[in-house]
Amino acid sequence: MKQIATMALMINLGVAGIYAQQNPMNMTVSGTSAASVINLQPGGLTSEYQLTGDGSLGPITLRVVNTNTPAPQRSNTCSGPTKVYFVATAGAGVLRAQEGSLLKLSLTGGGDCIDFAAGQALCIRVFQVLAGTGRFQNAAGGTVTLTMNVVPVLGDASNNPVFFAVTGGVTGAVPGVAASDR
């Protein structure tokens, strides 16, 4: 009986050790983006991203809502005569695994480098992992980066882009999620 109790304790400690690790996240995503009716900040431009993907956490969907500064900002990484940079200032995301577990994310940084000559933008969103449900219930505190290439698909009557195709990836670490949770 003592040996069974010792084995059970060792198994529990091993499982706890797996969940305490920060496991790397590496996923590809694609989807769409458009302006949002949600108003996160007066004068800001709010966008919504609807993405699906696959990778280290298995098949996922990711929905992001965020707002940017209303005017272009200076940037050391986005400069040139045909480029403008907008800072991402507020937002959140929810990553949903195929079986229904949720990972809640809070925007902490990022921005959009729009290249008018190339007709595309490089958009980066940095999130802090807030909490999760299901297999992500022990997740909190990690950092996740969403990097997207965004190209216009449809313009309005004035030919201003209003609907976009998105491809990219999600990288980072999700503490409390075992690598075997795929």
How is this structure best summarized?
The chain is mainly beta.
Structural features, described:
With 182 residues, the protein is mainly β. The protein has a single domain (22-175), classed as Porin, CATH 2.40.160. It is built from one helix and eight strands. Residues 5-20 have low confidence and may be disordered.
- Whole-number mean pLDDT: 87
Q: Count of DSSP helices?
A: 1
Shape: globular
Oligomer state of the chains in this structure: single chain
Note poorly predicted spans.
5-20
Rg to the nearest angstrom? 20 Å
Major β-sheet strand ordering = 1-2-3-4-5-6-7-8
- Measured as a percent range, the helix fraction is 10-25%
CATH topology grouping: Porin
Question: How many beta-strand elements?
Answer: 8
Query: Given this structure, which CATH class is correct?
Result: Mainly Beta
Major β-sheet annotation: 8 strands, antiparallel, barrel
Listing every helix as H and every strand as E from the N terminus to the C terminus, the arrangement reads: HEEEEEEEE
Category from helices, strands and their pairing: mainly beta
The fraction of residues assigned to DSSP E strands is over 45%
**Cα separation of the termini:** 34 Å
Specify the CATH architecture: Beta Barrel
